[in-house]
Amino acid sequence: MLFTTILAALAAAPALALPTIEAKGAKFFTSDGDQWYIKGVAYQLTPDDPLAQGEQCQLDASLMKTLGANAIRVYHVDPEADHDACMSAFSDAGIYVFLDLDTFSTYILPDNPSWNDTQLKAYGQVMDVFHNYDNVAGFFVGNEVLTTGANSIAAPYVKAAARDMKAYRDSKGYRNIPIGYSAADIASLRPNLQNYLACGSNTSESLDFFSLNAYEWCGTSTFETSGYSQLQKNATDYNIPIFFSETGCNQPMPRNFGDQSAILGPDMADTWSGAIVYEWIQEANEYGLISYNPSFDTDPANFAVSGTPTPRSPDFDNLKSQWATLSPTGFKAADYKPSLTPPPCPSFTSALWEVNRDVALPTLNQKFDASVSSAIKSGSGAVPTATGTGGSAVAESIGGSSPSSSGSSSSSSSAQQVIGANSLFYTILSLVFLW
Ligand SMILES: *[C@@H]1O[C@H](CO)[C@@H](O)[C@H](O)[C@H]1NC(C)=O
Ligand SMILES: *[C@@H]1O[C@H](CO)[C@@H](O)[C@H](O)[C@H]1NC(C)=O
Ligand SMILES: *[C@@H]1O[C@H](CO)[C@@H](O)[C@H](O)[C@H]1NC(C)=O
């Protein structure tokens, strides 16, 4: 009886021995006290849930280990599915997981943003089923919600989501799993958004990390010409961890992943915590490091979503060679005394950043208050300062014309297409799901 109880307990407990990941100051550390740098791969074989098929995860995790990866990013899961087999397959291979908490029907919409009970419950459900896996490295409350200045009205809702998911995590007694956001790389928007998500003296209301989907470094580029030197300038004094949640421009092919030596080398490793390369599977957008069906490689519309992963040449080996030479050690947690302070909250700038600096975050279920926006817009000095009162939501909606998002980033057109294609894909899917 006792024996079977113990057996049952052993079977139920995640059989994992990886040290857990925590954010401290502007860096990630393992519970062993070492600074942790991400060498990750985006992993979403099917829209539903790539972490529900244990055997497939086993095959992929083994090959990722030979690649030198230590993390994956997963965009969508089904909280009802069983994830034990996949999570242990990745853990056994030394691979951590960054996971988006949103689902197709609950993500924060850019033009009509909300943060409500339904969303909180859905995000919480994902956290409930994943928090106990030792190899969960972080949760995202959103991916590329904002892509234009007009979308900045959604930023307070993203921040409110992080506030409430952090509070939920703590109220449940879950470990301190970092909670952050994955941003589109729009040059006109990025610095304000990056600073906004970290600003303010109350850390219960700011994010635990910020990450960027950036496709600026294409072909044989350099730290200066790629635009990475600007990313570095904007991040030098950032007080929370920052990393690339997607990277890997694929024009021109093949990819040599030269940016990894900037990110994980002397140029950026003092500031950035690594990168997640987009992506594992070869699909129509042709970013794959592997293919499950190499004979269909020349016909991307016919890609397979499961099977034995076969490295695509030369991209897979190029990334493997890069990572093999890059092992920044950084700080020991005990020697690291964070001293950076949060950045100032950005001020309202019409068409660029339409969020008032002084207005409180929306409370759960609170809708945007239009009267606040007209006061802000007039610059009349009648700006409500609802600080601390849990008062008005921020922002303003621009009727009709949206500011140009061109001239935005120096990223390649292919990256813009990818972002567009992904969003369209998710929009169609979410419509199908809603329907
Ligand atoms: C909550 O937000 C979701 C996602 O945007 C939306 O679909 C839903 O209608 C909202 N629910 C309420 C009650 O506003
Ligand atoms: C910090 O923010 C949290 C969440 O909004 C709030 O409950 C708390 O009262 C705030 N603390 C201070 C000192 O304002
Ligand atoms: C970000 O970098 C750009 C280019 O160097 C600079 O113009 C801008 O002022 C920086 N913004 C912030 C918020 O640091």
Automatic annotation (TrEMBL):
<protein>
    <recommendedName>
        <fullName>1,3-beta-glucanosyltransferase</fullName>
        <ecNumber>2.4.1.-</ecNumber>
    </recommendedName>
</protein>
<dbReference type="InterPro" id="IPR017853">
    <property type="entry name" value="GH"/>
</dbReference>
<comment type="similarity">
    <text>Belongs to the glycosyl hydrolase 72 family.</text>
</comment>
<dbReference type="InterPro" id="IPR004886">
    <property type="entry name" value="Glucanosyltransferase"/>
</dbReference>
<dbReference type="Pfam" id="PF03198">
    <property type="entry name" value="Glyco_hydro_72"/>
</dbReference>
<keyword id="KW-0808">Transferase</keyword>
<keyword id="KW-0325">Glycoprotein</keyword>
<feature type="region of interest" description="Disordered">
    <location>
        <begin position="378"/>
        <end position="412"/>
    </location>
</feature>
<keyword id="KW-0472">Membrane</keyword>
<feature type="signal peptide">
    <location>
        <begin position="1"/>
        <end position="17"/>
    </location>
</feature>
<comment type="function">
    <text>Splits internally a 1,3-beta-glucan molecule and transfers the newly generated reducing end (the donor) to the non-reducing end of another 1,3-beta-glucan molecule (the acceptor) forming a 1,3-beta linkage, resulting in the elongation of 1,3-beta-glucan chains in the cell wall.</text>
</comment>
<keyword id="KW-0732">Signal</keyword>
<keyword id="KW-0336">GPI-anchor</keyword>
<keyword id="KW-0449">Lipoprotein</keyword>
<feature type="compositionally biased region" description="Low complexity">
    <location>
        <begin position="397"/>
        <end position="412"/>
    </location>
</feature>
